[in-house]
Structure formats: structure tokens, C-alpha cells
Design goal:
The complex is a heterodimer of chains A (206) and B (735).
Chain A: H1 3-6, H2 9-19, E1 26-28, E2 53-60, E3 63-70, H3 75-82, E4 101-104, E5 107-110, E6 123-125, H4 138-145, H5 155-168, H6 174-181, H7 191-201
Parallel strand pairs in A: 1-3, 2-6
Antiparallel strand pairs in A: 2-3, 4-5, 4-6
Chain B: H1 18-23, E1 38-44, E2 50-56, H2 58-62, E3 66-71, E4 101-107, H3 110-117, E5 121-126, H4 133-136, E6 161-165, H5 168-174, E7 177-185, E8 188-189, E9 197-203, E10 206-211, H6 216-227, E11 234-237, H7 253-265, E12 269-272, H8 275-281, E13 284-285, E14 287-296, E15 302-314, E16 334-342, E17 348-349, H9 357-374, H10 378-385, H11 401-412, H12 414-417, E18 428-440, E19 446-452, E20 458-462, H13 471-483, E21 490-494, H14 511-537, E22 545-548, E23 551-554, E24 557-563, H15 564-568, E25 574-580, E26 590-602, E27 608-618, H16 625-644, H17 662-665, E28 676-680, H18 703-715, H19 726-734
Parallel strand pairs in B: 1-12, 10-11, 13-17, 15-16, 20-21, 27-28
Antiparallel strand pairs in B: 1-4, 2-5, 3-4, 6-16, 7-14, 8-13, 9-10, 9-12, 14-15, 18-26, 19-20, 19-25, 22-23, 23-24, 26-27
Helix pairs in contact in B: 9-18, 13-14, 16-18
């Protein structure tokens, strides 16, 4: 396989150029090796190593992307390495810690445990997408007020799980908040703060 | 000492970098992306003790995208920060534990690097291994270190660690009763959320490392030493750090691997650890076996304590392996011998208050047991035996341990809630327990610089990292208070050895006592300069001026004033700086704590639910109430994990760690943690910056014993081995 194709340098620069124009648009990122028309979002060929590639279309934080991804690339890797959304963290890369939590179709999911090719046609919300212009999301504001982050590494995930909960249940109880965040580990042990912040974001003083 | 009126210190201040932390903008080492950057992964030993006979990397090197493979033959770089005993390298031969690093691969992408690991062919000659420290001390045991399995060390690390005062024999003679027992703690991984990552880049002979380190200054020193570079040729940057709790002190092997791989490939390299790498390859808290002999009078007063212990420091010695849990008690006659022992297991070293929680578990559990056997209320037992003089001779700079106990007991309702152990009716049994703790508060070298800009804002430069403690905010608060300007007029740059002054590194709860005084002194330095440029403008003398709320004014007539910006507008900028190294003049320093927990133990399942937790702390003046409370809560949560669930299990035959993952290591989640109530007993310490002592490490120290004692109070059965899992509770109930 050609070295140049695998390197991310080219496509990443193209992507950054693409970012320059307009907040909502479609940045077309492709090395042009594959005919997008024939691309399969769910590859069936056995490549063994997952090195095969497909083109996918997806929306991240309201912006459309057309990208070529390796089949073995996870959503977390796509977001972080290819698109530069490094607010999504990888803590365990095996679906245990929740640092990589993003929202897909209104649900909080572990982005380390989803392949990028499965995201064809999906809408993804990351921590970066919560900010509207200069305005923070109420969950983010509450995390500042309630000292939600200590080291901050789990914070994006905690906030995204809190946000997903509030999307489906705007007035949760404390028990509901704990359950909703229970897939997000915080080794700094800041659980009291994170729960208080989500409750506060829901408009409830603790 | 009267509480001074502060304008910023002591308030609830949100973090100055909170915005970056809640928006995903905070850049951690693993987030750094450089043009042409390679990714590196590690191959680790599958054997607990083996000689590497040969390494064939040819197949790996042929894999398209692979740029370099390094191992003990072509990259024998010492890892000095890892070795207080014998020389340790980034790759060792023989390998001494399952997880010891064997090789590292740099490739154009992480999947290729991972694939390449499987193509490296290593031939091992297996050597006999030993996992149990007691076995390791026996004659004829497999030799792990050339110096022997009792880790001899040097300086502070000389072993066995022995400490003695008073007259032990006399002490035991004076005792009405003598008790003897053994308590056991296990290896627990720090399990910080951020996996290890390091990015290295060379430019014209100068190395820059974006590290996930607790201290940029000592990381730079270590990297320079290990690579044989002048200090000036190494730059270490760490602006944000995703936790370490002691296992990211100084420079780590992966920083050195990144540097070597970047050198041989001529490209920037990012080394990334997997979560499993972190659990099996990096150190956690040393396990211990603590044998106590304790003499007490009829009224419960301790007359003598003898501690004979072994600790498991694993394959390499990184830290003392000491046990300091007796620090919080007044012991007139004392003898301690702690033997740090090498075994073929992962290294046991620093994890938040390294020598304390496991040791407090042993001693405070035993004291609680003795109180029970003598019919004394534990509250009285702990209060009576609390420490007054360090090592029975040295006064403390301040000591409000008694108030911690009294106020904490009041808050939890000890008087009303305590009952005899096992007296609670089932099936869900109520229990209440307590323990004492704390952590040394030491003075030391600090440095800081403060630039006052022509617009009246100030920029603080400090070398501190902020590993989650809120240290950046603490330093900004101290600067604002000392300067006399509002906090929102302060900017702060941290964690870059090319830009920021020396800082000790965030370990040993040293940032506030070491760097805090330097920030105050730098502020005083720049205030002098401000007053000297403002004096002519205010038609006054420098010594008659003061600065508060961003205004320079004449002390005798505050209405005669100038905004700071106006005062310094024509001075370009003023720069204050200081290097400080205070001492305690022969006194001992310590933050103190008394913790109280209530539990509910299900006698059918052995499940423990913590229903209430009160943590009372003497940390002197609290600089930032909000962050300090969070620190206390977090320390308690880690203690709860250590008490109830956490233990790195190692297969007795293969020596393979069985649970190197979050799920299986069972760190606490949102569901297990109660609201932790924090009580600050606030009296300014005469030696701390603005009266502050230390906050980071004290809260974990009594937490394990507190939970253990509450479980005993519920069940009436003493579990002497951590973690106190349901199976142990149920087994004890059947005896």
C-alpha cells in the first residue's frame, strides 16, 4: 500500500482549508482514490487488518463532511485525528470509562466503540458543538460553577452524558442523573460535583 | 492567630481555566498533533522473569509505514527517575515482570504500529520468578535485583527502613495489655483517566517534549540526564494533565522512548499507552503486610508500638516503600522496621500519599479493634492517642487534629449513632466508623515571576502543572491577593520550562507551600517597583503607598489614588520575580484530618453501601474553598475504592495480571459514592502562604480505615485484608 495514501497530512490540510469557509457547509475531504458512488459504508470485503477504506458522509456539530476512512478507524479516532475534535478523549479505548462519550441521534455513546464507517449518514454532537457562538451550553456553565472538572480528562464525557440525559429528561431526579452518568468514570472522584452540575443545569438547586 | 481579612483568598473561586476544561479546548499531551508525526506503541513482556535471548524485528520493519523499532540492544537509555536502587533502563534485560517494556515501534499511524508489535519475534529464556515478598526474602529465592531482593536503596531510601525512639521494652512493661496482629493491603493502580502519552520533537539538537507529567522542571532535569543532554537543550511542556496521582512524577520511560524514536526517525513521535499498558506497565500503590505489637494502658493510652512490615515495591524501586500511618498518634516508645522487597510484579510506588492510606488502614483498624476489645468508645480512643508532637519530640507549626475529631464527630452525630460493634439488627446492618489522617506539609524551593502590564493587568509565570488540583487557580488567587488587584486582572502561564520558572512538580502536596511563597515574594517585588514609579505621580513617597483593588493610593489619604494602569503606563512593564526557600525552623508541618463514615452492610449479600461521609480537615487557611472541597471529596472517593473493591489480581502461576481494565479493577462509579460532607477547621498556619497548609494528599489517608472501621461496627467482624469485598464479609460472618 502506498505510504502517501495512508499519511494523514494531505487530507488534514485540505480539511483545515475547508474549515475556513462558513460555519455550516460541506467540506469534501477525499484523496480521490475511490469513486464515492461505489463506496460502501458497511464494507464486506475481508481485509484482515481493516486497512480497506470507504467514503462516508456524516455531520459533526452541524457541519457536513464527506470523508474517506479506514475500516478499522473508530469514531473517536476519526473525530480526534482526522477532524481535530480533540475535546473527545480516549481513556480506555474499550468502552469502560466514557471519556470518549459523544451524542449520536440524541443518545450518548462511547465513540471508541463505534467504527467510523458505521457513522455514514449520522449526526454527531461533540463537546465542541455544545458552544453556540460565544455562549456555553447550560451544562457547561454549570460544570464551571460547580467545579465539575478536576483534571478535566473525563469532563467532556460527563458533560455529553449529562446533556443527553437532559435532552430526553429535562427534569431528572438525582438518582436519574447518577444512573445517566454512571458510565462515565472520574478518577479524581469528583462525582458529587458532576451530579450537582447536571442537576443545576436542569434548573434545580441542590 | 486572628483570621486576616482577605479579598480573594478563602472564597469559592471557579477555576481560571474552567472554560478550556469544559469546552474541550484544553490540550493534553495526547491531543498534540504535529506535521509528519509518527505514532508509537510498546511491546511488553509476557513473562514475569526472563532473559531476552534475541529480538528479530525484520518482519516488523518490512511492514509498510513502520519507521523504527527500538529495544534494549539499540536503545539502552537509563531511566534514572525510576531507580533509587539499581540502574533501570527504558528496556531491560532480563525483563522482570509481566508488562516490562521490551520494544517500541514508531509508524505512520497507530494501527500500523500496533500491527507491527505482533511481527516482532522475541526469544525468551524463562527464569524462575517470585511474586510474594515473604518468599522473595527467603534464601534461594529467584534474584530480581543484583543487590538482593530486600531493596537496599540509598539515602532516604536505605532499607530496611528503621525508625525508633523511646524505650520499647519499658513501654511494653508499662502496658496493661499487649495486642499483636497483622494487616494486609494490596496493589492498587492509580488508574488516572488520561492514558500515558508523550510527544517528542527535535529541532537543531534541541528536544521538545509535550509530556503528561506532574512536574515539568524535574521532568526536564531527568530527560537531560538520561539522554546526556545539556539542560538547555531540553524543553518540557505540560499545560494540562489528565491525572496521575503520583504515577506521572518526573520523566517517564515513554518520554524517553518518544525522544529516542524521534531522534532515529527524524520525525516527531507520539508514544501512546493503552489502558492495559497503564495497568500492567506502570506503578500503583505498594502492597504491604503490617505486623503490629501495641501496648496500651487500661484507659486506652498507647505506651508502645512495634511495627514490623514488608512492602512489595515490585521489580524496580521507585519510591520508599515506607509505611507512615502511625504518624497521627502520640507514641512514647516506638520501633518500626519496614522491608521494601523486590518481586516479579509491577512496580509498587507513588499513588496519592504513597506511604499512608494502606498504613493508616492497618494501624487505625487495629486501634479500633483494641478499643472494641477493651470496651472503649473508638472516638475516645482516637482522641486520647492523637499526635501532639511529631516523633514524640518535635512540635508542629500548627495542629488542630483535636478540633477535626470533635467537630467531625459532632457533624456526623457520633454520640447518638455509635453503638457496640455488631449490635445493629439485620438484615441491613448500620455501622459507623472513624480514623485519623493527614499528610506532611513541608517548605521548599519555589520560584515565580509576575509581569505588570501597562494596562494594569498582571501576568503570573509559574512552572506548576495543574494535575487537577486547581494549582493554576491557587497561584492566581495568591498573586491577586498579594498584589492587591482583582483576580480577573490576572493571567497565568504555567508548565513550560522555556518560559516559566522552576517549580517542584505537583507531588507530595508541595505546590502551595513551595511555589506559593515565591508568588507572594514576586508580588512584593513588583509592588515596590510600582510604588517607586507611582510616588512622583501621587506626589508622595513609595513607602507611603499601598495597592488594593487595582488602585495605587496614599495610605494616609486613600482618596489620593491612581488606577494601577495609569501608574505604570509609562514604565513599559514591570517585572517582579522571586526565588524562595523558606524553612520551618526545626518545627514539623502537617495537615490533619478526621474522617467519619456510616455504612449499611447487607448481611445476605455482603454488599456495603456508604450512606454518609464526613471529612474534617485542618489544612490551615483554605486558599480556594471550591477546589479544596473537590480535592477532599476526590481523595475520599479513591479511598472508598481502595477499601471496598480495588486490587490488581495477579495469577499465582503465570504472574499475569488478571484485571488490568477499569471494569475489572472496579474503580468507584457515580453509583457507589455518597455526598461527601467537608468540614474545614480553619486556623492559619504561621508558616504557610496566607496561612495555608496542604490539601491534595490528606483526604485519601484516613478514608480506607474509616470505611473499614464502619464495616466492623456494622458486622462485628474484623476484616484484616484489603479490599473488603462481599465474599470476605460473608465468610467472616460464617466463622
Amino acid at each position: 500500500m502506498d505510504e502517501e495514501v495512508k499519511g494523514k497530512g494531505v487530507s488534514r490540510r485540505d480539511f483545515l482549508k475547508g474549515l475556513g469557509g462558513g460555519a455550516i457547509g460541506t467540506a469534501v475531504v477525499s484523496t480521490g482514490l475511490l469513486d464515492p458512488g461505489k463506496a460502501e459504508a458497511y464494507p464486506t470485503e475481508a481485509t484482515g487488518t481493516g486497512r480497506g477504506k470507504s467514503v462516508i458522509n456524516l455531520k459533526v456539530n452541524g457541519r457536513g463532511y464527506r470523508l474517506e476512512v479506514e475500516h478499522r478507524t473508530t469514531l473517536a479516532e476519526l473525530l480526534r485525528d482526522q477532524l481535530g475534535f480533540t475535546g473527545t478523549k480516549i481513556g480506555c479505548n474499550r468502552g469502560e470509562c466514557g471519556a470518549c462519550t459523544v451524542i449520536v441521534a440524541g443518545r450518548n455513546i462511547y465513540s471508541c466503540s463505534q467504527l467510523a464507517v458505521w457513522m455514514d449518514g449520522k449526526e454527531i454532537l461533540t463537546i465542541e458543538g455544545l458552544v453556540q457562538g460565544e455562549k456555553l451550553d447550560p451544562v457547561q456553565e454549570a460544570f464551571i460553577e460547580h467545579d465539575g472538572p478536576q483534571c478535566g480528562f473525563c469532563t467532556s464525557g460527563q458533560i455529553m452524558s449529562g446533556k443527553a440525559l437532559l435532552l430526553r429528561q429535562p427534569n431528572p431526579t438525582e438518582a436519574q442523573v447518577r444512573r445517566a452518568l454512571s458510565g462515565n468514570l472520574c478518577r479524581c472522584g469528583n462525582y458529587n460535583r458532576e451530579v450537582a452540575a447536571v442537576l443545576a443545569a436542569a434548573g434545580k438547586a441542590r | 492567630m486572628a483570621q486576616k481579612e482577605f479579598s480573594v483568598v478563602g472564597k469559592r473561586i471557579t477555576r481560571i481555566d474552567a472554560y478550556e476544561r469544559v469546552t474541550g479546548q484544553a490540550q493534553y499531551a495526547g491531543d498534540i498533533q504535529l506535521a509528519g508525526m509518527l505514532y508509537a506503541r510498546l511491546l511488553r513482556s509476557p513473562h514475569p522473569h526472563a532473559r531476552v535471548v534475541s529480538i528479530d524485528t525484520s518482519r516488523a520493519e518490512k511492514l509498510p509505514g513502520v519507521k523504527a523499532v527500538i529495544h534494549h540492544q539499540n536503545a539502552q537509555v537509563p531511566w534514572a527517575s525510576g531507580g533509587h536502587t539499581h540502574r533501570r533502563y527504558i528496556f531491560n534485560n532480563p525483563v522482570r515482570f509481566v508488562g516490562d517494556a521490551v520494544a517500541a515501534v514508531a509508524a505512520s499511524d497507530r494501527h500500523i504500529a500496533e500491527e507491527a508489535l505482533g511481527l516482532i519475534e522475541v526469544k525468551y529464556e524463562k527464569l524462575p520468578h517470585v511474586l510474594d515478598p515473604n518468599e522473595a526474602l527467603k534464601p534461594g529465592a529467584p534474584k530480581i535485583s543484583t543487590d538482593g531482593n530486600l531493596s537496599v536503596g540509598k539515602g532516604n531510601f536505605s532499607a530496611p527502613i528503621a525508625e525508633q525512639w523511646g524505650d520499647l521494652e519499658k513501654g511494653f512493661k508499662e502496658a496493661d495489655r499487649i495486642f499483636e496482629d497483622t494487616y494486609i493491603s494490596k496493589h492498587v493502580n492509580n488508574a488516572q483517566l488520561e492514558p500515558r502519552a508523550s510527544v517528542a520533537k527535535w529541532e537543531g539538537g534541541k528536544l521538545t517534549v509535550w509530556a503528561s507529567t506532574q512536574g515539568v522542571s524535574n521532568a526536564r532535569t531527568d530527560i537531560a540526564k538520561d539522554l546526556g543532554l545539556p539542560l538547555s537543550k531540553v524543553r518540557v511542556i505540560c499545560k494540562y494533565m489528565g491525572g496521575g496521582f503520583g504515577n506521572k512524577n518526573q520523566a517517564q520511560d515513554y518520554d524517553l522512548m518518544a525522544a529516542v524514536l524521534a531522534k532515529v526517525t527524524g520525525q516527531p513521535v507520539k508514544v501512546e499507552f493503552t489502558r492495559e499498558d497503564d495497568f500492567i506497565g506502570m506503578h500503583g500503590r505498594w502492597a504491604s503486610e503490617q505486623h503490629y505489637k501495641i501496648g496500651v494502658k487500661k484507659d486506652g493510652t498507647i505506651t508502645a508500638v512495634e511495627l514490623d512490615a514488608v512492602t512489595n515495591v515490585g521489580a524496580y524501586r521507585k519510591q520508599s516503600g515506607n509505611l507512615n500511618g502511625t504518624d497521627f498518634y502520640q507514641i512514647p516508645n516506638f520501633k518500626k522496621v519496614v522491608k521494601p522487597v523486590h518481586t516479579n510484579t509491577v512496580v509498587g510506588a507513588n499513588y496519592r500519599a504513597p506511604a499512608y492510606p494502606q498504613s493508616v488502614f492497618g494501624f487505625a483498624s487495629f486501634l479500633d479493634q483494641i478499643a472494641h476489645e477493651m470496651g472503649i468508645n473508638p472516638l475516645e480512643m482516637f482522641l486520647k492517642n492523637r499526635v501532639r508532637l511529631y516523633a514524640n519530640k518535635t512540635p508542629f507549626t500548627s495542629n488542630f487534629l483535636e478540633e477535626c475529631v470533635v467537630e467531625g464527630a459532632k457533624k456526623v452525630g457520633w454520640k447518638e449513632k455509635w453503638h457496640k460493634a455488631g449490635a445493629s439488627a439485620g438484615p441491613k446492618k448500620h455501622g459507623i466508623g472513624m480514623a485519623l489522617g493527614g499528610y506532611p506539609f513541608r517548605p521548599g524551593l519555589g520560584a515565580a515571576a509576575i509581569r505588570v502590564n501597562p494596562d494594569g493587568t498582571a501576568h503570573v509565570l509559574v512552572g506548576v502543572t495543574d494535575i487537577g488540583t486547581g494549582a493554576k487557580t491557587t497561584m492566581a488567587i495568591i498573586a491577586a491577593e498579594a498584589l492587591g488587584i482583582p483576580l480577573n486582572q490576572i493571567q497565568l502561564t504555567n508548565g513550560d520550562t522555556d518560559v516559566t520558572p522552576y517549580s517542584v512538580g505537583e507531588s507530595g502536596s508541595r505546590t502551595t507551600p513551595f511555589t506559593g511563597p515565591a508568588v507572594i515574594a514576586a508580588a512584593e517585588d513588583v509592588r515596590k517597583q510600582i510604588f517607586s514609579v507611582a510616588a512622583p505621580q501621587l506626589k508622595s513617597k513609595p513607602e507611603d503607598l499601598d495597592l488594593r483593588d487595582g488602585k495605587v493610593f496614599v495610605k494616609s489619604n486613600p482618596s489620593q489614588s491612581l488606577p494601577l494602569g495609569r501608574a505604570v503606563a509609562r514604565s513599559g512593564e514591570l517585572i517582579g520575580r522571586a526565588t524562595t526557600n523558606p524553612t520551618f525552623k526545626g518545627l514539623a508541618g502537617k495537615s490533619f484530618a478526621a474522617h467519619f463514615a456510616e455504612v449499611e452492610v447487607d448481611s445476605w449479600t455482603g454488599h456495603v453501601k456508604i450512606t454518609r461521609y464526613v471529612a474534617a480537615h485542618d489544612s490551615g487557611t483554605i486558599i480556594n474553598r471550591l477546589a479544596a472541597e473537590s480535592q477532599i471529596k476526590g481523595g475520599v472517593v479513591q479511598g472508598i475504592g481502595m477499601a471496598l473493591t480495588e486490587e490488581l489480581l495477579i495469577d499465582k502461576f503465570t504472574a499475569v495480571p488478571l484485571n488490568p481494565s477499569y471494569r475489572d479493577a472496579k474503580v468507584p462509579t457515580h453509583l457507589e459514592v455518597p455526598e461527601i460532607e467537608v468540614v474545614f477547621i480553619e486556623h492559619p498556619d504561621p508558616y504557610g502562604p496566607f496561612g495555608g497548609k496542604v490539601v491534595g494528599e490528606p483526604p485519601i489517608t484516613p478514608a480506607v480505615a474509616t470505611v473499614a472501621n464502619a464495616i466492623f461496627n456494622a458486622t462485628g467482624k474484623r476484616i484484616k485484608e484489603l479490599p473488603i469485598t462481599p465474599d470476605k464479609i460473608l465468610r467472616a460472618a460464617q466463622v
